[in-house]
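Quick one, T. Sequence first:
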Amino acid sequence: MAGVTAALVAAEIHQIPTTIVYAGSKPTDCNSFWAQGGIIYKGLENVDSPALLAKDIHQAGAGLCYDPAVQKIATEGSDRVKQLLLDDSLKGAFAHVPFHRNDETGDLCLCLEASHSAPRILYKADHTGRVITEQITMAAARHPLITMKEDTIVTELVMQQGICIGVKILGGETQYASLGVVLASGGLAGIYQHSTNPPGFNALGSSVALATRSGAETKDLEYVQFHPTSLLVPNEARFLLTEALRGEGAKLRNVDGEEFAKNFHPLGELAPRDVVARGVFDEAQRTREVVRLDITHREPEWLDQRFPTIQEHVRKRGLDLAKDWLPITPAAHYTCGGVATDLNGCTSIPGLYAAGEAARTGLHGGNRLASTSLLEGLVFGAAVADFIGNGRAIKKETASLIRNCENNLSVASQNVYSKINSSSAQNSKIQLGRPSDEVGRLLQDLKQTMWDGVGVVRTHSSLSAAIQALQVVRERAEILYRDEPSRETVGLRDASIAGMAVASAALSNPVAQGAHHIVAND
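C-alpha cells:
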C-alpha cells in the first residue's frame, strides 16, 4: 500500500507521472491486502490524543522507537487517513473506504486492540486491509498519470556514480527513473516456516535484498515480529487470527483449559505482541501441547458479523469461533526493521527511497504496535511523494546519467541477460526458466532454518548454526539464478540474502529487547 500511496500522492498532488511495477498479476497482491484488524485513526477527544498514541507506540516498541518517527505518525496520521481514505470530495481523486459505521448516527466505529490505551482503530469487519487496498488501488488505477505494470519482477537496482537511476527487470528490460526509485515491496516474514504472510513471491525480502546488493544501509532486521495467534492446522499454511479477537475478549488457554496469559504479563492477552508471542511459545514448549484461543463466550451472530472472514475460514476446517477453542501457534508476521530511511523515505543511496514495511524509519523500535502498519504505509508513502514533488530529488544529475546509460549499455548487463530472449520473455510475462525441485527444496530448508535458529527465541549457537546453513543456501541460490534466471531463482536468491541479513543482525545484537529475544545457550 505504501507504494500505491506514494504514486497517488505524487500524481495527484504534484502532477508527477509515475510507474508502479509489481510482481503479481494484480496490484492488490500484497501483504496490506491481508491485514485483518484495522488502521489507527483517532479516538474520542476526551479519552485519546496524539501524545497518548505516541506513548503506546513507544511502550510497545520496547523503548527502541525513534521519537521523531513516532511523533510524525501520531500527529499526521489522522489527517492522512482523512485525506487518502475518507475522501468525500466531488473530484474523489483518492479513496473512500467503507469503514464500519454506527447504524443510527453514521459515525465511524472505533475498536480497541492490544496495547492501545483507547479505542482508535477504524475497521471493516475482519478484512480492513482488503477494502483499503482495493479502494486506494482503484484510485491509482484510474489516475491518468499512473502506469501499472503487472507480473514484473525487479532483479537489480541500476546504479551510476553512486546514484540509483532505475531498475533491471527479469526478462532484460531496464526501467529508468529520473526522479527516483521507491522500494515498497513489503517485508520478509515469508522466509519463515510458520508465517502469516501469503505464500508466493511476496514477503521474501526483495526490498532488503535489492538494497543489500546495492550497498544501501539496512537496520534493525533482528526485530522480526511474531504474531501470537495464527491458526495451526496440520499440512496447511498458517492463517492469521487477528489481534482484534483478543481486543474483543478472546482468551489464551493451555492444554488443561487454564487461562495463562496473566502468568506472563499483567495485561494478559492485551500485552505487547512480542510478550504474548513468547508466552504462547513458552507454554507450548512447557506442556508439549498446542495452545488454544477461546472466544466462545461471545454471541454466535455477533461473531459472524464481526469476523466473517475468519469464521468462513475455520468453518471450512470443521471449527467454529462460537463453539471451539482454536489451535494456535506464533508465526512470523512483520519486519520492524528494513532499509534504513529518514522521515522523507530517503535511503543512504541518492535516488533510492523506501516506504512501508520495506523501510526502517525507527517507528516500530523492537516491536510493532497493532494496526500501525497500514497507517505507516500511508504517512511515509505520502512523505516520499511530497519530498520528491517539492523539488528535493536530484533530477538533473539523474537525467544525465540515464542518458549516458541509454547510449552506452553496459557489457555486464548484457552478459547477465544474454540467455533470455526479450521478445519471448515479454510474451510469457515472467514465466522464465523452469521450476526446479532444487529451488523448492532449498527454499523450504531456508524457512526451516529461520524458524529453528532465528525464531521466537534465539541463542548464540542457534544463530551461528543458522548463518552457516544460510550461507550454503545463498551460494547455491546465486549459481541457480546465474544459470537460469526465473521467478523461482530470483525469489530464492532474495530470500537467502534477507535471511542472512536477519540472522547476522541478530547475532551481532546480544541484548534481548522486543521481538529479538536472545537467551544464553543451554
